[in-house]
Amino acid sequence: MTDAAVSGRPLPAGRAKDIARAFLPNLPIGNRYDYYYVGAKLRSDPLYPGVLHALRGTTAPVLDLGCGLGLLAHTLRQDGQSQVYRGVDNDSAKILRAGRVATKAGLRDTHFEVVDLANTLPTHTGSVAILDVLQYLDAESQRGLLHAVARMLEGDARLVMRAALDGGGRRSRTTRITDRLANLIGWMGSRPRHYPTREGLEAILGEAGLRTEFRPLYGNTPFNHWLIVAQR
């Protein structure tokens, strides 16, 4: 992965707006919260360019664990990537909206369902995306999840994660505070349980037979976010 590919720049404003339009309500008086949220997130968050780059070159189906509103599906299709996509999340309201908007936007081979990753894991063979999810699982659950996901990877399939790492310092403290606030206001249904360290993740993924690459993905944000790509 090149430095240019993970430059910390978000999607260009025009591309972000094109995706956000799908989240507009059908009626002028409808709720526009998701429209404004999606537009602002895609214009400011450096997550998706790095994830898109990591998944290029593989046709393996993608399982998106903790998919939220399904923005990865929209960015994949906008990027010209046609992998079969399956998004799961424990927030049934978000899954309902994600499915409706994906249908409205005409996204092909895209599916959504409610799954609580703390209790179960879907059967899957292919690539896996775990974006901003690990901190909501305890340490033992993280280990179990990553070992299970490693068994899903075959051929050139990839595990792509963005994780908030426990590195100490201002960025880690800001990440913790923001995640807690997201839970308090109801945007995230769970509160953070464990922030992994880079050394800890490297050890777990190595045990699972994966080679990994870590890149900081701060962009202009104050958070301690890292992009992690792993393959067999």
Fold and architecture overview:
It is a single chain. This protein has 232 residues and is α/β, with parallel strands linked by helices. The chain has one domain: Rossmann fold, CATH 3.40.50.150. 39% of the residues lie in helices and 16% in strands. The chain is built from 8 helices and 7 strands. Strands 3-2-1-4-5-7-6 form a 7-stranded mixed β-sheet, with helices on both faces. Helix 6 links the parallel strand 4 (127-131) and strand 5 (159-164). The model is unreliable at 1-6 (pLDDT under 50).
Q: What is the CATH superfamily label?
A: Vaccinia Virus protein VP39
CATH class: Alpha Beta
Content-based structural category: alpha/beta
Largest sheet: 7 strands, mixed
CATH topology, what is it called?
Rossmann fold
Tell me the number of helical segments per DSSP (H or I, 4 or more residues long): 8
In short:
By secondary structure, the chain is α/β, with parallel strands linked by helices. 39% of the residues lie in helices and 16% in strands.
List the helices and strands and how they pair.
Blueprint: H1 13-21, H2 33-44, H3 47-55, E1 62-65, H4 71-78, E2 85-89, H5 92-105, E3 110-114, E4 127-131, H6 139-150, E5 159-164, H7 169-184, H8 198-207, E6 211-216, E7 225-231
Helix pairs in contact: 1-2
